[in-house]
Backbone:
C-alpha cells in the first residue's frame, strides 16, 4: 500500500481522508506541513532534556579495535586515551615468549564512568598482525571478526521476540598504527586498509611519533595522505558521509590537515612546570603527550572521544552494518515480501 | 547488569561525558517526530484542545454529524521552538459516535494504527533500507475524549479503548469539562477509572522509575483522566490576556489549575513524557505488532523440533516457497497464452477459408454473366449487320425508282402496278 511519488505530490498536504473502513488506510507521507508559528512557550524543547536523561540511563557501548605490528605502542595509546588500564601491555616479551602464529583477536571489556555517563568500553587487540615472516592475508581474521559481530547483531535483530536493547559488539572504530619510517606506507598497510576501510571505520595513526622532527612529520603525513588517496582508501571520516556543509568543512579540515594523527602514548606522569603531565622522559627532554606542540595525541582524543564518538557509532550502524545486512540478505535470496503487492521498487524479493 | 565487566576508574578526564550532547546534537539536526491521535465524538472539543495545547490555530474544518462511517484525517505541521524542530502529526477521527449503528466505529482506527506499524515494518524488512531518515508516522499517543456526562463511560468508549490499549498509549481525557461541577467531577473520574480497571483496559501510566520524574508522575497518574477545557479565545483577567471561555456566570480560565487539568495535561504530554511515549510506542507496541505479524507469516524463532531456526534456513525455506509459486504462476500463464494463440489461429483459418469460398463463387458468377453478355452482344451485332444490309437495299431501290419515271406517269405506274 505504497502510493507512488506522483500520487503523493498530487494529494494536498492538508488532509487525507481514509476511504471506506476495511480498506487499507493511506499512510501519511513526509510532512510538507504548515509552518505553524507559536504564540507562547509550549515546552517542546524540553524533549532535549528528556532524551539526554534517557540516554544517560541506558548507557553507551563503544568498541575500539587497534591494529598494528607489535611494539608500535597500541596498548599504551589506548590506555592513555581512556586514562585507565583498559588494555594489558605485552610487557617486553622476548623470543622465548610465544609470538602468535596467526593473528589473534582479543577483546577485553570494561565499564568506565564519567560525568554520570556510563560506558561499556571494549578494546579489541590484534596481536600477531604483521609479525610473521609471511603476512599474506593476515587481515582476514580481522575482517572475519568484524563481520561476525555484524552477523551477531543481525541475528538478534531478525528474531521475532527481540531484546529490548540488542548488545552491540560491532567494531565502531579501528585505529591502524603506521610505523614512523618517515618514508611511506608499507604494502601491508595499504593492503589492510584497502580491504578493511570497506567494512569498518579506519582511523590511521602514526605511532611513536616522537622519532620524527616537525618537518619530517609534516612531510610524512602529506605523503601518507597522498598514498591513501591514490590507492582509493577512504578512512574515517569518509567524504561521502558528510551530512551537511557544516560537517563537510569541519571534516575536510581534519582529513586534509590533521590526519593521520601523529601520536605518542604514555601512562607515566612527570612534573613539568609545576604540573603533573603524562609524558615520556628522555635524556633530551620530556615529551608531553597532551601538549599539542609535541604531538597530536590531544587531537586524536578530542576527535575520537569528545566530538565524533557518537558519529563513529552511527556510521557503523547506519552504513557499514546496513551494507553487510543488505549483502547478506541478498545472498540468501532476500526477505520474503509481507504482502503480494510489494513488487515495485526495492529488491526485497527476487 | 554489567555482564561481568570489570569497572575501571579513570585517572584523569577523558571526555566521553559529552556523549549525550553529541547524541542530542545529532537528534536536533534530524528533528523530532510526534504523532497524536485524537478520538472523540464530533463536537467533543478535540480541535480546540489541540490548538490550545500548541498555542496555534491549526486549521481544522468543522465536520458534520452525518458521515456514514468513521474516517481519520491526518495533518502534519512543523513547529519550531528555540533550536528544536518538531514534526507534529495530528490525526483526528471524523464522525466517531455519530452513526446509528456503531459496531464498526473502532475498526478504521485500529486499521490506521496498524497501517503505520506496517509501513515501518516494511521499511525495516527491506534489503536496502534507510531507517535513520524514515519519517515515523506511528501513533505515539492517543488522546481519548470522554463525553462529560458526569456518570460513567459509554459502551463505545470501553469497546474502543479495549481494542486499542495494546496498540497505542492511551491517555483518557474528559473534554469540555466546564460543564461538570467540582464535586461531580471527582466522582466522575473515580467511576471512569474503576470502570477501566474492571474492564481490564490498559491506559498509559506515566513512568515512575526515574527518580527525577517519578514523584510528579505518580501524582499525575492519580489525576487521570484529565478534565480539560480548551479555548483559543483570549479574555482579559486583571491586566493579563488569558485563554478562557466567558460565560454570563463567570470565566473559565484554561490555564488555571483550579479550573481544569489543562496545564497538567500539557506538562505530562509534552514537557515530561514525550520521549517516553515515543519509546514505549517503539519498544512495546511496535515490537508486539511486529511479533504478531511475523508469526502470522509463518516465521518462528524455534523450529518444529524445538531447535532454534537459523536465519538462513528460514529465508531459504520461504524463498523456495515463493520461487516455486512464481514458477507455477509463470507456467500457468504460459499455458494460457499458448491456448489463446491456438484458438485465435483456428478462428482466423476458418475466416480465411470462408473468404476464399466467397471469392471463388464470385469468380464463377462473373464468368457466367460475362458469357451471357457476349452472346447478347453477338446477337445484337448480327441484327445490326442485317439492318444495315436492309437499309442499303432500300436506299438502292428508292434511288432507281426516282430516276426512271416522271411524276405524271406516276398514275399510269400506279395503274400498271
Residues:
Amino acid at each position: 500500500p505504497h502510493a507512488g511519488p506522483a500520487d503523493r505530490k498530487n494529494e494536498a498536504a492538508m488532509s487525507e481522508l481514509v476511504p471506506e473502513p476495511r480498506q487499507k488506510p493511506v499512510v501519511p507521507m513526509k510532512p510538507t506541513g504548515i509552518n505553524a508559528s507559536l504564540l507562547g512557550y509550549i515546552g517542546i524543547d524540553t524533549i532535549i532534556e528528556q532524551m539526554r536523561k534517557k540516554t544517560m540511563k541506558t548507557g553507551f557501548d563503544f568498541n575500539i579495535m587497534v591494529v598494528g605490528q607489535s611494539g608500535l605502542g597500541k596498548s599504551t595509546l589506548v590506555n592513555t586515551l581512556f586514562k585507565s588500564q583498559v588494555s594489558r601491555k605485552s610487557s617486553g616479551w622476548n623470543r622465548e615468549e610465544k609470538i602468535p602464529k596467526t593473528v589473534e583477536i582479543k577483546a577485553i571489556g570494561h565499564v568506565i564512568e564519567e560525568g554520570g555517563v556510563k560506558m561499556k568500553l571494549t578494546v579489541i587487540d590484534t596481536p600477531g598482525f604483521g609479525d610473521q615472516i609471511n603476512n599474506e592475508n593476515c587481515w582476514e581474521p580481522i575482517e572475519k571478526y568484524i563481520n561476525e559481530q555484524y552477523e551477531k547483531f543481525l541475528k538478534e535483530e531478525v528474531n521475532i521476540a527481540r531484546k529490548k536493547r540488542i548488545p552491540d559488539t560491532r567494531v565502531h572504530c579501528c585505529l591502524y598504527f603506521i610505523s614512523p619510517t618517515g618514508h611511506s606506507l608499507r604494502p601491508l598497510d595499504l593492503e589492510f586498509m584497502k580491504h578493511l576501510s570497506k567494512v569498518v571505520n579506519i582511523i590511521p595513526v602514526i605511532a611513536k611519533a616522537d622519532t620524527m622532527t616537525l618537518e619530517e612529520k609534516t612531510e610524512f603525513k602529506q605523503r601518507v595522505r597522498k598514498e591513501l588517496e591514490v590507492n582509493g582508501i577512504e578512512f574515517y571520516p569518509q567524504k561521502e558521509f558528510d551530512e551537511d556543509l557544516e560537517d563537510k568543512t569541519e571534516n575536510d579540515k581534519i582529513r586534509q590537515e590533521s590526519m593521520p594523527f601523529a601520536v605518542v602514548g604514555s601512562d607515566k606522569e612527570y612534573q613539568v612546570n609545576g604540573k603533573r603531565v603524562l609524558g615520556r622522559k628522555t635524556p633530551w627532554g620530556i615529551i608531553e603527550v597532551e601538549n599539542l606542540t609535541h604531538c597530536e595525541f590531544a587531537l586524536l582524543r578530542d576527535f575520537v572521544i569528545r566530538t565524533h564518538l557518537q558519529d563513529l557509532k552511527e556510521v557503523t550502524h547506519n552504513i557499514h552494518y546496513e551494507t553487510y545486512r543488505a549483502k547478506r540478505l541478498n545472498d540468501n535470496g532476500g526477505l520474503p515480501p509481507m504482502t503480494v503487492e510489494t513488487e515495485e521498487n526495492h529488491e526485497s524479493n527476487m | 547488569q554489567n555482564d561481568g565487566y570489570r569497572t575501571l576508574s579513570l585517572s584523569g578526564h577523558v571526555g566521553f561525558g559529552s556523549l549525550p550532547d553529541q547524541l542530542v546534537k545529532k537528534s536536533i539536526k534530524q528533528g523530532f517526530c510526534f504523532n497524536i491521535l485524537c478520538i472523540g465524538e464530533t463536537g467533543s472539543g478535540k480541535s480546540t484542545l489541540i490548538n490550545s495545547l500548541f498555542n496555534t490555530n491549526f486549521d481544522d474544518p468543522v465536520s458534520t454529524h452525518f458521515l456514514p462511517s468513521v474516517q481519520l484525517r491526518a495533518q502534519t505541521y512543523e513547529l519550531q521552538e528555540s533550536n528544536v524542530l518538531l514534526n507534529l502529526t495530528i490525526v483526528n477521527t471524523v464522525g466517531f459516535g455519530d452513526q446509528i449503528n456503531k459496531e464498526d466505529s473502532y475498526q478504521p482506527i485500529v486499521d490506521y494504527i496498524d497501517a503505520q506499524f506496517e509501513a515501518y515494518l516494511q521499511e525495516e524488512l527491506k534489503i536496502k533500507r534507510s531507517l535513520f531518515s524514515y519519517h515515523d508516522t506511528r501513533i505515539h499517543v492517543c488522546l481519548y475524549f470522554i463525553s462529560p456526562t458526569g456518570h460513567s463511560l459509554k459502551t463505545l468508549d470501553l469497546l474502543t479503548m479495549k481494542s486499542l490499549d495494546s496498540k497505542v498509549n492511551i491517555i483518557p481525557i474528559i473534554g469540555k469539562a466546564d460543564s461538570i461541577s467540582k464535586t461531580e467531577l471527582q466522582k466522575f473520574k473515580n467511576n471512569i477509572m474503576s470502570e477501566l480497571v474492571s474492564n481490564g483496559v490498559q491506559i498509559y501510566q506515566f513512568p515512575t522509575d526515574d527518580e527525577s520524574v517519578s514523584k510528579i508522575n505518580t501524582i499525575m497518574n492519580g489525576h487521570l483522566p484529565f478534565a480539560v477545557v480548551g479555548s483559543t479565545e483570549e479574555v482579559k483577567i486583571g491586566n493579563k490576556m488569558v485563554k478562557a471561555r466567558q460565560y454570563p456566570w463567570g470565566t473559565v480560565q484554561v490555564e488555571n489549575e483550579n479550573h481544569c487539568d489543562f496545564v497538567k495535561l500539557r506538562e505530562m504530554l509534552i514537557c515530561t513524557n514525550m520521549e517516553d511515549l515515543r519509546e514505549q510506542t517503539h519498544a512495546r507496541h511496535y515490537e508486539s505488532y511486529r511479533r504478531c505479524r511475523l508469526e502470522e507469516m509463518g516465521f518462528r524463532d524455534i523450529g518444529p523440533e524445538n531447535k532454534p531456526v537459523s536465519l538462513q534456513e528460514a529465508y531459504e525455506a520461504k524463498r523456495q516457497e515463493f520461487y516455486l509459486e512464481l514458477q507455477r504462476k509463470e507456467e500457468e500463464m504460459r499455458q494460457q497464452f499458448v491456448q489463446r494463440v491456438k484458438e485465435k489461429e483456428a478462428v482466423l483459418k476458418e475466416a480465411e477459408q470462408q473468404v476464399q469460398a466467397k471469392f471463388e463463387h464470385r469468380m464463377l458468377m462473373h464468368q457466367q454473366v460475362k458469357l451471357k453478355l457476349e452472346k447478347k452482344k453477338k446477337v445484337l451485332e448480327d441484327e445490326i449487320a442485317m439492318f444495315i444490309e436492309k437499309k442499303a437495299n432500300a436506299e438502292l431501290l428508292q434511288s432507281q425508282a426516282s430516276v426512271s419515271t416522271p411524276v405524271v406517269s406516276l398514275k399510269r405506274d400506279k395503274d400498271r402496278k
